[in-house]
Amino acid sequence: MFTNKKRIYLSPPHMSGNELAYIQDAFDTNWIAPLGPHVDAFEKELASYVGRIDAAAVSSGTAAIHLALRLLDVTAGDTVFCSSLTFVASANPIVYLGAAPVFIDSEPETWNMSPQALERALREAARQDALPKAVIVVNLYGQSAKMDEIVALCNAYQVPIIEDAAESLGSSYKGRASGSFGKYGIYSFNGNKIISTSGGGILVSNDVEGLQKARFLATQARDNAAHYQHSQLGYNYRMSNVLAGIGRAQLAVLEDRVLARRAVFERYSAALSDLPGIRFMPELAQTRSNRWLTVLTLDPDETGVSVASLLDVLTEENIEARPVWKPLHMQPIFEGAAYYPHSDTEHISEQLFTTGICLPSGSSLTEEEQARVITCIQKSIITAKSMTA
Ligand SMILES: *Cc1c(COP(=O)(O)O)cnc(C)c1O
């Protein structure tokens, strides 16, 4: 494979330019540390944006999940339920704590956690007197899960929710910010997310005391003593003041980024929806997705193209695309973990994995670049159709 065509990335960082002023300020004031005025301000601004009382800025979304699980006292021998169709970071912190993940399948309308599978899992756990310490619900590719149903079930069994909104900052569900439904919510500012601090994450909640404890755990759990004294296990997880400055400038353009990604989705949808066998990831009624990534499924019989072959064609054109996340219950590292499918006969996350493809969706993607992606997909599907006709 060799081409001189310019690389089109899946979801590259998109700076506004104003980040430099915040970085300059951090340098001018010499706040070059994992604390400082930009960290405090970023926490307040983000909490206010998503409608929570407080937020704790940390070094990654993964760290935020780890801290949320610690706040819920997850320890060795516990179980934690988690969406199966997600990035491995959603579940890894469960294992950091020696607990066991139980994976819950997706449902077709949101591609997120299936309430009916969750209900079966909770009912069975209650019967065995082994309810999970937490349920981690993921909002995939920007689409909110069915929170009304999931919150009602978790309330009925009194199991707290951690909302993994790493991919859904800027999305809403029935007018409320995605990530604001659980006891704790987490966001990520990794380089590929809708806004980025290069690397970083944040934990949000109305549990102000809990977040204070999260900050304590994130700074090596140092007791209140002049000498270094520690009575609990801590981590070095706080966000740098330099990066929090980048985050503040990025948060100021978040709404523009959402509009740009939604426009990218609309253009794909207008150009490709008429092709046979193509379906876009749905947007649930009364929700607004940030369309972090535009994702579609290909019916190989109707399109004549498999995900693998389309990925090959795009790669040859120097276009970065990806399959949908491999479900965690299928991952070698989680072999043997319990898993609840949507129904006896429907394994929705497995279907989405075999037929789904994520297209370049960055907010800086130009219309010319997007036209290259669209033409490439149209050509491969039309060629495949004419060959089978
Ligand atoms: C990116 C991501 C994370 C982890 O965030 P990091 O900041 O990379 O640690 C967790 N969950 C999901 C669904 C993600 O996409």
UniProtKB/TrEMBL annotation:
Domain of life: Bacteria
GO biological process terms held by the UniProt record: polysaccharide biosynthetic process
Modified sites of kind N6-(pyridoxal phosphate)lysine: K193
Segments passing through the bilayer: none
Record-annotated active site: K193 (proton acceptor)
Transferase among keywords: yes
A Pfam family assignment: DegT_DnrJ_EryC1
Keywords annotated in UniProt: Aminotransferase, Pyridoxal phosphate, Transferase
Needed co-factor(s): pyridoxal 5'-phosphate
GO molecular function: pyridoxal phosphate binding; transaminase activity
InterPro entries with a match to the protein in the record: DegT/StrS_aminotransferase, PyrdxlP-dep_Trfase, PyrdxlP-dep_Trfase_major, PyrdxlP-dep_Trfase_small
The keyword Ion transport is annotated on this UniProt entry: no
Family: Belongs to the DegT/DnrJ/EryC1 family.
Full protein name: Pyridoxal phosphate-dependent aminotransferase
